[in-house]
Design a protein that fits this description.
With 304 residues, the chain is of the alpha/beta class. It has 13 helices and eight strands. Helix content is 44%, strand content 16%. InterPro entries: AB_hydrolase_1, AB_hydrolase_fold.
């Protein structure tokens, strides 16, 4: 009993120290943010510029936040009103203990446009957030002007569903001490560096400052592990083929030339909705808006 109690206390201290160390620099909180009081938790966002509205939706990951758009926000704000949002469970937004699903994020996007922007909006999404945006547009297409998808996930991956192992692992992650320990191991600084850098064509473009912000984002809030468990156990997945086929809004896919899944993704999406257009950005992988922001912005200006 003494050994077990000592181990439990030791692991709890490690979890606490890890979280405190990760957020000690307060890098995400240096820039002023606004707050949207949503029913599942308060959402932090930034607003810049004047003109027709653009909503930037970062990739859904525990290490992600609206900081993903740091290279393009100011340029877009020269001729548009740009809203960059921290999704529920990410960045500075609240991270409640709950199961996160495609429906929740799709509803967040719709509610944000209705309550904060108040008019038809062009939405630019990154990575797996594309599925949330497609679902949101299917819910209420009148809220959307154009849809820009950057490195969207394969449609085939949306068919993954939580199995017995996934549900068991999610239950383990829900445990207070053991769950926190497993989460801290998964979001260890080196693991974040390895995982995010693998999506860059040139690894040196993922800078130390970017790593620090990702590491901080992964450890802020009440229950950051809740989003992690929902993602790795497939609760955020959804087959969006039907929704995609029904959308009449203009949809453009941006892919990095060195993203090995680019051609497959474009073919999958165009097979479902032939009206979809695509753009390939040189010298980049899954983050063309970071790796080659000038070419990305030049190509994007044609569609805005």
């Amino acid at each position: 009993m003494v050994i077990s109690s000592s181990t439990l206390i030791g692991v709890s201290l490690i979890n606490k120290i890890t979280s405190m160390h990760a957020i000690s620099k307060n890098l995400l909180g240096k820039e002023e943010t606004k707050e949207f009081e949503w029913r599942f938790g308060n959402i932090k966002y930034r607003k810049k510029g004047h003109g027709t509205p653009i909503l930037l939706v970062h990739s859904p990951d525990v290490a992600s936040s609206s900081e993903e758009w740091f290279k393009v926000t100011d340029i877009l704000a020269e001729s548009h009103t740009v809203y960059s949002i921290d999704l529920l469970g990410c960045g500075l937004s609240e991270k409640p203990f709950m199961t996160y699903t495609n429906h929740i994020f799709a509803q967040l996007i719709c509610d944000f446009i209705k309550a904060i922007i108040g008019k038809r909006t062009t939405v630019i999404s990154s990575g797996n957030s594309s599925a949330f945006v497609i679902s949101a547009c299917d819910n209420d297409a009148t809220l959307f002007e154009k849809i820009i998808l950057i490195s969207p996930e394969k449609l085939s991956k949306g068919q993954l569903i939580p199995g017995k192992r996934a549900r068991t692992y999610k239950a383990i992650l829900s445990m207070s001490v053991l769950g926190n320990l497993l989460y801290n191991i998964a979001t260890f600084r080196w693991n974040i560096k390895y995982n995010v850098r693998s999506d860059f064509y040139r690894k040196d473009r993922f800078t130390k400052d970017m790593l620090d912000k990702c590491y901080e984002a992964a450890h802020r809030g009440l229950s950051p592990k809740s989003l992690y468990s929902s993602i790795v156990c497939f609760y955020t997945k959804k087959n969006i083929k039907f929704e995609l086929s029904q959308i009449d809004n203009s949809i453009v896919i941006f892919e990095g030339r060195y993203n090995k899944d680019a051609s497959t993704v474009i073919k999958e999406y165009m097979r479902v909705n032939p009206a979809i257009e695509s753009v390939i950005i040189d010298d980049s992988n899954k983050y063309p808006h970071i790796e080659n922001d000038k070419e990305f912005l030049n190509a994007l200006s044609i569609y805005l």
